[in-house]
Structures are given as structure tokens and as C-alpha cells.
Known about the structure:
By secondary structure, the protein is α+β, with helices and mostly antiparallel strands. Helix content is 46%, strand content 20%. A three-stranded mixed beta sheet has the order 1-2-3, covered by helices on one side. The model has no long low-confidence stretch (mean pLDDT 89).
Amino acid sequence: MTHSLGDILARRKMPEEAPEIKQIKAYIKDVFDEICEVKAREHSIVISVGNPSLAAALREHLHVLKEELNTKKSLRIQINH
């Protein structure tokens, strides 16, 4: 019996997002009503946003986010074009 690639991928378990990633996404959605992409790296967390004005506004909130996350990783903002 052969299975299509779609069937195989549908049964595959997707890894859960780290709690800190969920928390950052929820914060940005609640405060700015925007979506973002978040990637956790070894020593940093990269927050990718869609426009420069959101990045500038978010920069003022980084200290709040860092305290809420209770992390030693640095928070970085990246603008996707």
C-alpha cells in the first residue's frame, strides 16, 4: 500500500512552540493588534515584524517583554520587507 506525501505529512506531529514564543506573539497581538514571527536562537530571540513603525513602537516595549519572559536571551527586532 502506498501513501501520498500529503497523507504522511498530515500524520506528522508538529513541534510545539516554546512558551516564550507564544508569550511574545500574544503580547504583540494584544498591545499592537499585529502578528509577528518569532524565532528563538541560542543567545537571542528574534522578533520579525512587517513594518518600521511597528518595530519602533515595539522597541519601547522590549524591557517589559524581557521582564515578563524572565530570560537572559537578548531580544532583537527585525523588519521583514
